[in-house]
Design brief:
The protein is an all-alpha fold and 222 residues long. The protein is built from 14 helices and no strands. The longest helix is centred in the C-terminal third of the chain and has 21 residues.
Length: 222
């Protein structure tokens, strides 16, 4: 994040701001991530960003669905489901092909489990997806949130802990996502939240020191 901010101050390039969408989200600075997306698009209306992931973490599902940048069908499906539009979510979801990598098949199984609302959904997610190593820290977080929704609280807590330890410090959903409400009663959860918020605050100090607020024209950092 520091290096991207430094480069973006010296050279006006939409790719640097698109990179900041990702880096700021990992740092837990979700509003800064959205602001970086808006700046990238003001410079190049066609530059791709990962802002739909940020909207999903913020719980801004309507904005995600309205955004022309929401090309990720996974995020659209989850946004529709969270808005109570389950049938639309089911119609949009495309199953992984038979020759898909195991990781993709595992993710597919978890999405199907959460959409199905059927008996055995938790067991399906745990057996086919919940124990599969995710490809990156954000994947650990995404999978854990789904597992929490399905009632697999121990695996969900493990996934969130791995995400934070590996550098994904989005504290906002830890505090506010309703799917994580049962985990907040676990005596281990407050320390997990403190670690994420501490690292987010450290990132915020770097963001401010490197002129991030001036560069992006905003002050909030959720």
């Amino acid at each position: 994040m520091r290096r991207l901010l430094q480069r973006a101050r010296r050279t006006v390039d939409p790719e640097y701001f698109a990179g900041l969408v990702h880096a700021c989200r990992y740092a837990g600075l979700l509003e800064a991530s959205v602001a970086a997306h808006e700046e990238a698009r003001s410079l190049d209306p066609t530059v791709p960003t990962s802002v739909s992931n940020t909207y999903l973490l913020l719980g801004d599902y309507e904005r995600l669905l309205r955004s022309p940048d929401a090309n990720d069908s996974d995020n659209k499906v989850l946004a529709l489901y969270r808005l109570g539009r389950r049938e639309e979510a089911l119609s949009l979801w495309q199953r992984a092909p038979a020759d898909a990598p195991d990781l993709l098949k595992s993710w597919d199984a978890m999405i199907v489990a959460v959409l199905s609302d059927a008996p055995g959904a938790r067991e399906l997610a745990e057996n086919t997806g919940g124990r599969t190593p995710w490809i990156d820290p954000e994947g650990y977080s995404s999978g854990a949130i789904i597992l929490a929704r399905l009632g697999s609280h121990e695996l969900a807590l493990t996934g969130l802990s791995r995400a934070v330890e590996a550098g994904f410090n989005a504290a906002y959903p830890l505090r506010h996502d309703p799917w994580l409400a049962p985990l907040r009663e676990d005596p281990r959860f407050p320390e997990l939240l403190r670690r994420a918020e501490r690292r987010r605050d450290e990132a915020l100090a770097v963001f401010r020191a490197e002129g991030g607020e001036r560069l992006l024209g905003q002050r909030a950092a959720a």
